[in-house]
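Quick one, T. Sequence first:
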Amino acid sequence: MQATNKLKIFNDPIYGFITIPNTLVFDVIEHPVFQRLRRISQMGMSYLVYPGAHHTRFHHALGAMHLMQQAVEVLRFKGTNISEEEEQALYLAILLHDIGHGPFSHALEQEIVLGMHHESISLSLMEYLNEVFEGKLTLAIAIFKGTYSRKFMNQLVSSQLDMDRLDYLKRDSFYSGVAEGNINSDRLIKMLQVYQDELVLEEKSIYSVEKFLMARRLMYWQAYLHKTSLVAELMLLKTIQRARKLIAKGVEVSGPKHLLYFLSRLEQEQFSKEDLFIFIQLDDHDIMVALKEWQHHSDKVLSELSKRLLDRNLLKIKFLNQAVSLESMQQIRNHLQQKLGWDEALAKHLVFKGKIKTLTYNKTSEPIKIIYKNGTVEVLEDASPSMNHSAHHKPDTKHYAVFPKEAREVVNF
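Structure tokens:
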């Protein structure tokens, strides 16, 4: 029987050919736990706004690994010693950093599995894979957790200028068509150095870093938090919450059994092996199958939300500078109850308010550092005068109100 050629290449539309560096990485990519990422969308419900945004976590993981290969090459060229074992661990850590994402990625973060962030699930899955591969992922796990002695390696995987962010901005910009998010990842990587075990960037990269931060801010408001993407994800969240509430009341709710397994459970702090094996059966398709079944459910809230999502008959959303009063919300609900005969529960679930907050750059949490030719190092906001006057390091907060188009005539905010 002919042996499989494990040193294959992927043809990526952004970077060209991505090479698999060794057989262990190939075997990890081939594992069903990793292949599941082909069925997890990268940008949640954003495809309802940007039809091209159907790329997956699988695409992103391979792209991030490719950038990590470039970073290792650059740092070695500049004199940083990285052993073959550390190199492989870096590739595995970045490849698996998002493996714990559930259906539709951030859209349902901590909702299907109550109280658990995807990074915690990623760690559990990495530890499981470490058992499968007989301890060969131990160093990758230490780098991922930030417990390895060489700090810059964790920064390559998780920081304010890591390979994860460099790939997803460029990739999401490409697939969505939002050109403002396109960044020069090659230049940023070529400007990397290690100083006192920390990642720093050469002085001549300052404008590229500013462009990177601006692109990140614009991608949040034009893509990730585009009002239509946001309202679709809020509706999906409400739908899952309604299904969970009905199940808790003993109402029969059909759907994929591994999805119902988690919807019938309360908040949990850690995964058992059983939980883990059930979780890796979940992907975007389970949610879509559930919505197709729930649109016919006897509960009006569950059926209405599900049908609206399937038909892209989305609710309207308005961004506002300040919160809408409870009285205004109730006025809209009363109007819908009188005009359309909706009951109170349906009106409450289709008319609601909230707020979102983003922060492009956190100057207090591991700030980006710039190194000068004379060897001195400064944090970005000191090295770049324009950073002190920009909105990058200030939280962006927007209030919103959501309502169906049938209520537009009484909306006065």
